[in-house]
Automatic annotation (TrEMBL):
<feature type="transmembrane region" description="Helical">
    <location>
        <begin position="56"/>
        <end position="74"/>
    </location>
</feature>
<feature type="transmembrane region" description="Helical">
    <location>
        <begin position="173"/>
        <end position="193"/>
    </location>
</feature>
<keyword id="KW-1133">Transmembrane helix</keyword>
<dbReference type="Pfam" id="PF07690">
    <property type="entry name" value="MFS_1"/>
</dbReference>
<keyword id="KW-0812">Transmembrane</keyword>
<feature type="transmembrane region" description="Helical">
    <location>
        <begin position="311"/>
        <end position="334"/>
    </location>
</feature>
<feature type="transmembrane region" description="Helical">
    <location>
        <begin position="258"/>
        <end position="278"/>
    </location>
</feature>
<feature type="transmembrane region" description="Helical">
    <location>
        <begin position="21"/>
        <end position="44"/>
    </location>
</feature>
<feature type="transmembrane region" description="Helical">
    <location>
        <begin position="346"/>
        <end position="364"/>
    </location>
</feature>
<keyword id="KW-0472">Membrane</keyword>
<dbReference type="GO" id="GO:0022857">
    <property type="term" value="F:transmembrane transporter activity"/>
</dbReference>
<dbReference type="InterPro" id="IPR050171">
    <property type="entry name" value="MFS_Transporters"/>
</dbReference>
<protein>
    <submittedName>
        <fullName>MFS transporter</fullName>
    </submittedName>
</protein>
<feature type="transmembrane region" description="Helical">
    <location>
        <begin position="81"/>
        <end position="101"/>
    </location>
</feature>
<keyword id="KW-1003">Cell membrane</keyword>
<feature type="transmembrane region" description="Helical">
    <location>
        <begin position="376"/>
        <end position="395"/>
    </location>
</feature>
<keyword id="KW-0813">Transport</keyword>
Length: 401
């Protein structure tokens, strides 16, 4: 039994290019410093800062607005100057801005630098997504994305756990660590994945089909709309849910950090093997539908049960299984509709979808929580997740896949 399990894990990780592994390692280092975002709402509503949850929601909305702008610019720049340069510029700029934001205390300056930080940070994503495609083969693409997500989530687990400890000491430390890991990632990316060590990307065709654009691809635009709805629900996991745990359930920062760490650990243990077993057996949308339903169930659990520490962990398990079934196959879906000359723009629009959700989701969620209560918020999120699942199911039938 042990031998069979070890063989399964070995097969799940085999066949990936060295560049894919290096890129994932860089992401692991970078995301090990992911501490600011999951604790931003708690930080702003802490006695030291004294802002309301509505004001914190406004700041997170600005974070999302900056991300929309960054996703658009990052996609355009990736197609023009290449994914490597864009990754270096955005990681370096983000590292500096994290440190600066941690020094800001007035609400206007917090809003301004949150927007700038988000713009630079999110411009990184289209370039990174394009790099994964460039470093992988078609038959290993979903697993290459899964490996990158594994690195991100392992880093998230480390960042959440350590972030909870640091937050209990001084919230300002979170900004310094996040900035330092960004700058460390720049050095690693520059050394291990220098363009001179990589194969040259395919040349842009002289004449491109103007209809082959993410902004004219009707199927892709419907997919993007549904992605926004899903992501709007999903982002509550890192913002208003943590505030709920602190404000309503009185969990301490250490335990909130451990809940976030559980998400990363489960992804690290399960995702690659599950993707290896599922990839190619059904359409991408088949798994996306089922994962979206699980996310809805997770939010319903918050109202259907009395949430104690154990059930909070169980809710995260259900949420994480939904995430595992949705996110890797979403990436495979959009890459399959793109080509070499416009992949940055497809990646950019996908990034924009998540950024719009990051703008509207936490902000609207915070307003619902403030004026109607957290229980209403969980019903809305669960219901929206189920409606989104129906939308993905319709898209699957429309495409006849």
């Amino acid at each position: 039994m042990i031998t069979k399990t070890l063989s399964l894990y070995k097969n799940a990780y085999s066949g990936l290019s060295p560049s894919t592994w290096w890129l994932s390692f860089v992401m692991l280092v970078n995301r090990s410093g992911t501490m600011v975002l999951p604790f931003m709402t708690i930080y702003l509503t802490s006695p030291a800062m004294g802002y309301t949850i509505g004001q914190a929601g406004f700041v997170m909305a600005l974070f999302g607005l900056g991300a929309v702008t960054g996703g658009f610019l990052g996609g355009k720049l990736t197609d023009r100057i290449g994914f490597h340069s864009v990754q270096l510029i955005t990681l370096g700029g983000g590292g500096i801005l994290f440190m600066v934001l941690g020094q800001m205390k007035s609400f206007p300056l917090i809003c301004l630098f949150t927007f700038l930080l988000s713009l630079v940070n999110e411009a990184f994503r289209p370039a990174n997504s394009t790099a994964i495609v460039a470093y992988s083969k078609e038959d290993t693409r979903t697993r290459s994305y899964a490996l990158n997500r594994l690195a991100i989530n392992l880093g998230w687990a480390v960042g959440s756990a350590i972030g909870g400890l640091l937050a209990a000491i001084n919230y300002e430390l979170l900004f310094w660590v996040d900035g330092i890991t960004n700058l460390t990632a720049v050095l690693l990316l520059s050394y291990f994945l220098h363009p001179s060590k990589q194969v040259k990307p395919a040349k842009k065709p002289v004449v491109a089909d103007p209809s082959h654009s993410p902004y004219r691809d009707k199927i892709y635009l419907w997919f993007i709309l549904l992605t926004i709805l899903f992501a709007g629900c999903f982002f509550q996991l890192f913002t208003n849910l943590n505030a709920y745990y602190k404000i309503e359930l009185h969990f301490n920062e250490r335990f909130i950090g451990l809940i976030g760490a559980l998400n990363g650990v489960l992804i690290a243990i399960i995702e690659m093997v599950l993707i290896f077993k599922l990839e190619g057996r059904r359409s991408n949308l088949f798994y996306i539908v089922r994962g979206t339903v699980l996310v809805g169930i997770a939010y319903f659990m918050l109202n259907l049960f009395h949430i104690d520490h154990l059930l909070a962990l169980l809710m995260m398990v259900v949420m994480t299984m939904g995430e595992i079934l949705v996110l890797p196959f979403m990436n495979t879906f959009w890459t399959a509709r793109s080509a070499d000359h416009n992949r940055g723009q497809y990646a950019g629009l996908y990034t924009i979808a998540w950024s719009i959700a990051q703008t509207t989701g936490p902000f609207l969620g915070s307003q619902i929580a403030e004026y109607a209560g957290f229980n209403v918020l969980w019903w809305v999120l669960g219901g929206t997740s189920f409606i989104t699942a129906v939308g993905f199911l319709w898209l699957k039938r429309y495409m006849k896949v």
